[in-house]
Design goal:
76 residues, mainly alpha, 2 helices, Dolichyl-phosphate beta-glucosyltransferase, EC 2.4.1.117, transferase
């Protein structure tokens, strides 16, 4: 989980180049920001877990691994 905040000026370097529509989209956003030289900072935020998550650890982990492999191949 994570909250991504971008300045309006950085969006033209990120949004038009995105291809991912699954859970991996935020990784692609960070990769695009890094390749465009956009400075990044990690800031902690409060988080409260809510019961009833639809996350399936096994299947969603496999989906993330596949998405990372596709991104890596696209960037390679």
């Amino acid at each position: 989980c994570g909250f991504k905040l971008f300045s309006r000026a950085s969006l033209p370097y990120i949004i038009p180049f995105m291809h991912s529509e699954s859970w991996i989209f935020d990784v692609e956003m960070l990769m695009l920001a890094e390749s465009a030289g956009i400075p990044m900072a990690e800031v902690s935020v409060g988080w409260k877990e809510v019961k009833g998550s639809k996350l399936n650890v096994v299947w969603d982990s496999l989906g993330m691994a596949w998405g990372l492999a596709v991104l890596r191949g696209a960037w390679g």
